[in-house]
């Protein structure tokens, strides 16, 4: 992998080694396609800048470098700027359709938005499962069981191919938006059960103590019950986040070329480099591992409060 490896983007040198050593030259040659997919070559500074800003917001929150107010402001700026840079059409930026987004920016977007939107939905569903209203409780149960009973890939196919068929003529929804909604709904179903377990783990005495303090049901849930429940299930929630981050690789089947799809895009049509998939997969595997390890460390810091 290292001692006999070819590092320079020279296909002839890689062929001369004849797989006796790794050909990291394929990464040096194809890294822009792997990282940015079909995004226009001349405009790839935009996804690079957008991804950097979003990662800075994530790292700032993970390392607790900002207090709550400035951190929320940073996120409120990072997400719109990300979409502005990726999509363009304003401030002299060339418009780029979402069908051309790909690589690591798309993977990061699907994972981050998937968890950000799934968490509040999961909390509502978990509370609905414990509601005293039979209709609400039944609807939440039906949603959870329906979504958990099918694999994510089938939900993606449903959103990408079947959903447009049932829409009225002349009305369409962007494929990226449909895929993102599928990931959110799928992740929320699993997260809701995790949070419901946390709610059930809070001792009944906490409810009694909240009532003794004169707090109403929703005040008690907001200030006493829910914070304890969420803290108790931090490892499980982070496990869901890791799963969402990795499951974004499935969107390739609906023609969205995220990180793993971009690798196939980079090598499939190039006879000189197509035999070096192993090195390419090791490269993107390291990216996935780095992201998952960082989330694991963040989870531990939340558990310990440090």
Helix residue percentage: over 70%
Q: What is the top-level CATH class of the domain at 104-256?
A: Mainly Alpha
CATH topology of the domain at 104-256: MetI-like fold
Largest sheet: none
CATH architectural name of the domain at 104-256: Orthogonal Bundle
- What's the oligomerization state? single chain
- Span from first to last CA? 37 Å
Shape: globular
> How many β-strands, per DSSP?
0
User: In terms of per-residue confidence, which ranges show pLDDT below 50 for 5 or more consecutive residues?
Assistant: none
Could you report the average pLDDT, rounded to the nearest whole number? Answer: 90
Could you give me the name of the CATH homologous superfamily of the domain at 104-256?
Answer: MetI-like
Put simply, the count of helices is: 13
In N-to-C order, the SSE pattern is HHHHHHHHHHHHH
Task: Tell me what you see in this structure.
- The structure is a single chain.
- The chain has 306 residues and is mainly alpha-helical.
- The protein has a domain at 104-256: MetI-like (MetI-like fold).
- It is 71% helix and 0% strand.
- It has 13 helices and no strands.
- Helix 5 runs antiparallel to helix 6 (134-148), helix 11 (234-247) packs antiparallel against helix 13 (277-304) and helix 12 runs antiparallel to helix 13 (277-304).
- The longest helix is centred in the C-terminal third of the chain and has 28 residues, at 277-304.
- It is globular, with a radius of gyration of 23 Å.
- The model has no long low-confidence stretch (mean pLDDT 90).
């Amino acid at each position: 992998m290292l001692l006999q490896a070819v590092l320079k983007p020279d296909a002839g040198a890689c062929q001369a080694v004849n797989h006796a050593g790794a050909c990291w030259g394929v990464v040096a040659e194809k890294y822009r396609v792997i990282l940015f997919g079909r995004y226009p070559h001349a405009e790839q500074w935009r996804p690079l800048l957008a991804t950097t800003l979003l990662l800075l917001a994530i790292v700032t929150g993970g390392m607790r470098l900002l207090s709550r107010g400035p951190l929320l402001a940073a996120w409120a700026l990072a997400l719109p700027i990300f979409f502005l840079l990726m999509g363009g059409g304003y401030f002299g930026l060339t418009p780029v359709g979402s069908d051309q987004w790909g690589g690591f920016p798309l993977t990061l977007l699907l994972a981050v938005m998937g968890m950000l939107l799934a968490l509040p939905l999961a909390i509502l569903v978990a509370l609905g499962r414990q509601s005293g209203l039979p209709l609400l409780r039944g609807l939440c149960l039906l949603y959870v069981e329906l979504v958990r009973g099918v694999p994510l890939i089938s939900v993606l196919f449903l959103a990408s191919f079947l959903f447009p068929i049932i829409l009225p003529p002349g009305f369409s929804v962007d494929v990226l938006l449909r895929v993102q909604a599928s990931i959110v709904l799928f992740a929320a179903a699993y997260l809701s059960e995790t949070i419901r377990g946390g709610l059930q783990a809070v001792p009944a005495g906490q409810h009694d103590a909240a009532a003794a303090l004169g707090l109403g049901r929703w005040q008690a849930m907001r200030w006493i019950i829910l914070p304890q429940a969420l803290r108790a299930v931090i490892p499980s929630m982070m496990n869901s986040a890791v799963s969402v981050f990795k499951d974004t690789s499935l969107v390739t089947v609906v023609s969205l070329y995220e990180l793993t799809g971009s690798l196939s895009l980079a090598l499939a049509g190039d006879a000189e480099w197509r035999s070096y998939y192993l090195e390419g997969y090791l490269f993107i595997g390291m990216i996935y591992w780095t992201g998952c390890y960082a989330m694991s460390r963040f989870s531990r810091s939340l558990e310990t409060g440090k």
